[in-house]
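Sample intake sheet
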Amino acid sequence: MRADRLLSLLWMLRARGSLTAPAVARELGVSVRTVYRDVESLSTAGVPVYCVPGRGGGIRLDPGFRTDVTGLTPQESQALLAAAAVSGAQDLGLLEALTSARLKLTAALPASTRDAVDMVTGRVVVDAGGWLPHRTPVHLDALQHAVMGDRRVRIGYRSRGTAHTRDRHLDAFGLVCSAGTWYLAGAQEGRVRFFHLARISSVEVLDEPTDRPPDLDLRGLWEESRARFRARFTPEPVEALVRPDRIAELLTLAQALEPPGPGTSPGYSRVLLRFSDRSHAVEVLRRFGPDALVLEPADLRETLLVEARSTCLAYEQVSGSAGPRRGGRPIPPGTRAAPSR
């Protein structure tokens, strides 16, 4: 609806101060001409919004203008508060500020909307931390200061799959928290890349300003990078025999290509799965042990078999393995007999 679009434009200007018409058009999914018509409508309604022509110009809102949050629908209010609950505020040292902001936002809502929000927050808890203790990345504080202060950094970084650490001089443009994992958005020679904080061994904040483009779209760059990463995968179809009581858990980690059917061995069901790639299949099926046995492809089955034998041999060499044996090999305690195909 047009009223919703006008409110969205107003909130965007309140949050960012100045925006170009093409940037607004992209975010709202409308034409540039429509954006200018909306600006005119807001101005006619008494909102102090105006356009500044030329380089560095854009659509601006008088900084003294204030509104309340009565334009938020109950659903928008609930979504905003839920999103705030799963942010990386604790890692950034902003948990107390976030809690205060949520209380102020809730108090500013109309009574009917506030009641709906209270009902949801009293019934739904979103915990992004999980059961295991959470550790804030070692260098996050220093990188946060560099990003907020528009400073360049020198980091020691270990690329994936290597043990060698290299120094890199970067423009620190931003931080991304994805599923609890932090990344630094850094530019080297104009190219923005994302660096996993867990692989950063050292950080030095330099007394050099970053060369930050005025139209940098951090979220857009992150989504493009993630799409390129996912495009590198070659999907891996797998036919397996799975214990019925583990199927539901397995299907949270892989896609089922067809409903589970009867297996060729007692106590197992046949499942046709698709993993994102071979390494993903190995990682997941390894943890299921004898509860998920690969039928096809044969080379994947052989990979897991060799890995299992190597593990048994390592246990035997370390402990002397005096327990029961089968075929000259130790039988790990609690191991179920493998079915015949």
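Comment: The mean pLDDT is 83. The domain at 140-231 is CATH 2.30.30 (SH3 type barrels.).
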